[in-house]
Amino acid sequence: MPTTEATTVTIRIPTPLRSATDGASTVEVKGTTVNDALRTLVDQYPELKDNLYNEDDELRRFVNIYVGDDDIRFGDGVETPLEGGDEVSIVPSIAGG
Question: What global pTM score does this model have?
Fold first, then answer.
């Protein structure tokens, strides 16, 4: 059963977004869900908000989030619970053709 106490997780920042995190490739934040962790990240690095969230304050469709190897879209989405030590990866979609 997930704990309701915020735990520390690591968020992996993709190269295109590192300019907003002072070059950091990972950032440790506290959160009980993916949403908590991402909101904490955006509080620490406000420049990331427009890259991650749309004008309706929802996670952008082209931003894929993984907890470990699991894509949150196939689970509980942004309400996916987190445990201490989890690694959350932000993976922007790459369009090509």
Answer: 0.90
